[in-house]
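Worked example 3. Consider a protein that binds LLP.
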Amino acid sequence: EASGGPAVRRLADWDADRLRDLAADHGTPLYVTDLDRVAQNCVRLRDAFPDAEIRYAVKAHTGRAVLETVRESGIDAECASAGEVRRALDAGFAGERLHYTAVNPPARDLDLVVEWWTAHPELTITVGARDTLDRLAERGFDGRVCVRVNPGIGAGHHEKVRTGAAAKFGVPYDRAADVVADARDDFEVVGVHAHAGSGIHGEDDLAAHRELVARMGDLAREVGDLEYVDVGGGFGVPYHEDDPPLDLDAVAAATREALGDVDAALAVEPGRYVVADAGVLLTAVNTVKPTPDTTVAGVDAGMTDLLRPAMYDAYHAIRNLDADTDGGRGRGPVTVAGPICETGDTFCDGRELSVPERGDLLAVGNAGAYGYEMASTYNSRPRPAEVTLDGDVLRERETLDGVTRLERGGGSE
Ligand code: LLP
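Given these inputs, the predicted complex is written out as structure tokens:
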């Protein structure tokens, strides 16, 4: 029987020698993913929510090996686009384990998913607008539908990830029962859904989550005859070194209690929780520049590799793998900055760290969730490589030819 391992895996727990070897073999910047940790995170989720339906939010990390690990752990897949559905199908998720959450779905996505539905009639499409129901009916879809509700309650680590109150997502709570009733004319309505936001960690977030779940319980009792009530994902992970781990059992108990007595299964959709602490980003120090306020350590990874600090001011732990015991370097304020021509391209500003030397290898923690997935080729930077902790290549390093491969026209004779 697989083990859930420790409640949290800190950056300090990674084996420095192993990470240095991987960087030497594969170069930097390099994502390292520990598939065993992915499996452990799945086990802890299963243990905390033994009778719930658990769906992994694929968007957090779409890598094939990660998806296969999740599938083997008995957890289903929640997909945000046709592309993610395609990846989940490729990774072997059967139709009944596939949930496509259609957010303002492009026509091409609906065309594809409805086409795949004919081969996988058990897949479920979650819709957040009456309009989407019409567009599905136009395409001949009459299968399993879940109605996404905007509960008017948001939570999460940053304004930009507080989904639950954003008008963009879900049908307004007051209209949800009507939309469910209408949808029942043409589809098999199997569930209702809401997602408060991402990075639920503190008491306030938990209170918001509880309120959302209670509202969804009320809705489920009102409309009746559902397979499940999906209360979204958002379970947080400790990004700061001294953040306590999320008490998953307490979250599960609070969720159950808030939901109350419903004749439907509970469903949850964690993304970050499954993969965040299973990944680190390795990056080499290329330039060290003392300034009056801080030492700038110029590294070879940037916001194109890991966008979260630039986009959400997200904190990620940073460890110097060549100076774990100081290495005689001394400590001081350090600004770890990438090679992108953007002021926001830093991983930390004036953080108290051991002062790096050129050639040092740094590890950035909790990079497994929304890390590689949000990588871009801005500044014509090839995307990084990704390997498992065992050294198997999961994604090759992109080449400059790869970056320009879609280019057409021009060219001098
Ligand atoms: N379900 C739905 C409908 C969602 O929209 C999301 C995340 C999840 C589940 C999973 O949330 P999680 O458990 O991973 O917090 N790029 C941002 C996060 C955006 C999440 C969007 N939706 C970040 O790096 O923090």
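Take a moment to read the result before moving on. The pocket of LLP is lined by residues 57, 60, 78, 101, 161, 163, 195, 198-199, 232-235, 269-273, 308, 312, 370 (CB under 6 Å). DSSP finds twelve helices and 18 strands in the chain.
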